[in-house]
Write a structure and sequence with these properties.
Distance between the termini: 118 Å
Radius of gyration: 41 Å
Oligomer: single chain
Shape: elongated
Largest sheet: 2 strands, antiparallel
Strand content: under 5%
Number of helices: 4
Number of strands: 2
Order of helices and strands: HEEHHH
Length: 201
Amino acid sequence: MGRGKVELKRIESPISRQVTFSKRRTGILKKAFELSVLCDAEVALIVFSPSGKPYQYATHDINRTIAMYRSEVGLPQSSYPACSTRIGTMELWRNETEELRRSIQQLEMRLKNLAGAELSMLGMQELKQLERQLKTGVQRIRSKMTRITSENIRLLKRKHKAQQEENTRLQKRLQELDQYGNASSSITLGASARNVIAFQT
């Protein structure tokens, strides 16, 4: 059965939006690579994230491809490439910092959601996804606890068996000592009796 038609609209949840962006970005970069290989095309692709972070793919030098595009469509070439490069680098670092800040905020919000807080902004789909993640987490925790408990039980059984074997060995040794003591006493008593009989005679 085919998949239903997906309604294209802005994703409200920041976390779901970021996940979708990452997946779709990977997909479009893969398609660009396939197009360049299959059709021997010169491809340059630039994608900016919602926070302004740039991602790019180019089969050749991207600046050359952009220059070729500008020439083809009649756009003027950049007069200050070095200055543009510096500005672009600064902008890249600024976008990277902003992206990291947003990622930290999203992770903090995710932790709050997992703790059962700040749920008012989540829709039904996000709440169901959160519920599945919590169930999976609980199952993993229980599985880990079961493994630890089983290992502890096996360890206690081994210790108990070792103690029983040691106890059996000590009891056997004690019996041997008792038998040796009784034999020594019998020999001593026999010698004493012979001495008495010899004295009476």
